Amino acid sequence: MKSYIKYLKFSKAFQVTFNLSNMSLEARVGTLKLRNPLLLASGILGTTYSTLQRVYEAGLGAVITKSIGPRSRSGNPNPSVFALKDIKSVINSVGLANPGYSVFREDIGILIENKIPTIVSVFGENQEEYVEVVKGLQDLPILAFEVNLSCPNTEKGGTQIGTDPVAVKEIISALRKETEIPLWAKLTPNVSDILEIADAAIKGGSDAIVAINTLKAMVIDIQTKMPVLGFKRGGLSGAAIKPIGVRYVYDLYEHFGEKIPIIGVGGITRGEDIIEYLLAGATAVEMGTSLGVAYPENMIRFFQMKIKKYMKEHAYTSIQEITGGAHK
Amino acid sequence: MTKLTIPNDKPLMGKIIAKEEECEDTYKFLIELPIKAERALPGQFIMLWVPGVDEFPLGIAGFEENILEIGIAKMGPGSEAMIDKQIGDYVGIRGFFGKSFKPIEDVNHLLIGGGFGMTPLKLLTTTLLEKEKAQNIHVFEGARTKGRLMYLEWFQELHDKELVNFHVCTDDGSYGYQGFPTVDLEKFLQESTSPSVLYVAGPEKMMKVIFNIGKKYPKVIDMQMSLADRYMRCGFGVCSYCAVDPTGWRICVDGPVFNTKQLEQISDFGTYKRLETGEKLRI
Questions:
Q1: Nearest by CB to B248, which of A50, A99, A100?
Q2: Which residues of A are catalytic?
Q3: Does B1 score more than 70 pLDDT?
Q4: Could A90 and B279 be called an inter-chain contact, meaning their C-beta atoms sit closer than 8 Å?
Q5: Where are chain A's structural domains?
Q6: Which of B10, B246, B277 sits opposite A99 (nearest CB)?
Q7: Do A73 and B253 make contact, defined as CB atoms within 8 angstroms?
Q8: How many angstroms away from the CA of B54 is the closest CA of chain A?
Q9: Which stretches of chain B sit within 8 Å of chain A by CB?
């Protein structure tokens, strides 16, 4: 009898898993179709083709590379990344370390050869540099360029550009003239009015808005009385910033509605967080910090199962139906 | 309460309670941590923060309750700043990171190291001594000259007490036999009839040579090698600067110790590593 009950339990669990595994999680960002809405955020596991391929094969919808600039850059001195356990978050000041687009073409080439949907994050210190990078890569079948207008860890460029609506519009429209490949503008939360910046990006010709990048942050060691990061200041990611990201996505969706796809990013550590972002108005989500675990493969599987379970419970048949569900 | 390991958090500030010259340009430090942990496993590493200067990965030579032993050689501004530190100074520790050596029972344990690679092998020796037979533990160490042999006294004393078999050599013949550790290693492998496991830590080029030697002998049932000598930022698997191709394994989380089966899949093993920009550098 006991084993029969065990069998029933097992078979029920199996059926649920089987039913869920048949559900489609297909997502759309503008004209792009993705196998699911889970994307790898730029800056995490994105330095080599091999880690990008690994997390895509583990079940993501697409991957976004580390931000690539015009030439090789060492970034900031260590410590440049560490965890803040009490708030389940990570602070970093990597500072756009990258090999430069001409060297990174090799890694992108391998990804494309292996049929990995690849989005390339690009940055520059000024408009000319952004254009140079996009020009240098646009012959490759890249899914989209994510335009990093928001890195807080550099002296010039990044946040400085991303907080100026005139500069944002100019850069996006300059890139628009250069390429047919979709452009996603990644915005900084470190502004008083994100809607103004998003509006500038849309007017410049952006195909999607990505919100948010890391928040300005700092850690001081009280024993030595010194800032811990080598660059002193950094950006915060992880669970602590999720409510902030959700708020920005909600605001953007409320203002722009379906005029522009929004990609939610910031602090996703559970499947529930992804659903929250979708309900706030996101069509897809990016995650990074939470994949810094021993088995990112398991994490991605859990996320997918959670979304499918939620869709079943709430009678959703597609991801698109969830988007904006919290705006009643 | 004693935790299993120290938490992955911002640098935990530890106080230097002992410092001594271990060998030429190399110092041993004992650092007292503010929390107790059950253990550090052999092959795991820490990120050592020298406040205001740098942070870098470093092997663990010993750990008991809350006292951490490290060995550090002059290799750049970060290590030089550490060597300048005195008893009573504070440094930051993050860790303990990575997968450890996993000794297999009832085999010949062949530990082969060079330079800074001797640090994790010291902790591995301590661990093996707790349960393995002395006659099965062999340590092969080589250096340019006597003054460069790390933990020479410690290993020599264990050898004299017949607790381990210490095979020591120098390039110039100033201590032990003249030549490379591979000479005695091959001799041992040719003569022995029972299964052996190789545990290796040191420069990657040296490890690749040993890997190729080990592959020639079917009685070498596993080779465990530590690829910790790579550029790292985070230490816990988010930044991927230390990742290897084509598998996408991060040395800090999926390694730093890899076994034979894994090493065979790593195309950059002994060939190239990534710089802090992500560019490849030939080893």
A1: A50
A2: 151
A3: no
A4: no
A5: 26-72+99-214+237-322
A6: B277
A7: no
A8: 5
A9: 7-11, 13, 47, 49, 51-52, 54-56, 90, 92, 94, 233-241, 243-250, 253-254, 274-279
Residue in A with minimal Cα distance to B280: A99
* Distance from the B14 Cα atom to the nearest Cα atom in chain A, whole angstroms: 10
Pairing of β A62-64 and β A118-122: parallel
B102-127 pLDDT, tens digit per residue, is 999 889 999 999 888 999 999 999 99
Residue B278's pLDDT is what? Answer: 87
Domains of chain B by residue range? 12-97, 108-282
Task: Examine the predicted complex and report whether its ipTM is higher than 0.85.
Answer: yes
Q: Which residues of B touch A99 (CB under 8 A)?
A: 277-279
Across the strands, what pairs with B220? B196
Spatial CB neighbours of B94, under 8 Å, sequence gap ≥ 6: A82, B8, B9, B10, B11, B12, B46, B47, B49, B55, B235
**Cα separation of B200 and B113, whole Å?**
6
Other CB atoms within 10 A of residue A26 CB: 14
Separation of alpha carbons A250 and A259, rounded Å: 14
Residue contact A51–B274, C-beta within 8 A: no
- Range in A44-48, A61-65, B249-253 with the lowest mean pLDDT: A44-48
Category of B60 on φ-ψ map: left (φ > 0), alpha (ψ -120 to 50) or beta: beta
Mean pLDDT value across residues A236-258: 97
Instruction: Dump the DSSP string for B122-162.
Output: HHHHHHHHHHS-GGGEEEEEEESSGGG-TTHHHHHHHHHTT
Smallest Cα distance from A237 to chain B, Å: 11
| pTM assigned to the model | 0.93
Interface test with A, best of B6, B9, B10 (most A CBs within 10 A): B10
Min CA distance, A276 vs chain B (Å)? 24
Q: Which of A45, A72, A219 sits opposite B238 (nearest CB)?
A: A45
CATH architecture type of domain B12-97: Beta Barrel (2.40)
Question: Are A85 and B234 an interchain contact pair (Cβ–Cβ within 8 Å)?
Answer: no
CATH top class, domain A26-72+99-214+237-322: alpha beta
As a CATH number, domain B108-282 is 3.40.50.80
pLDDT in tens, A90-137: 999 999 999 999 999 999 999 999 999 999 999 998 899 999 999 999
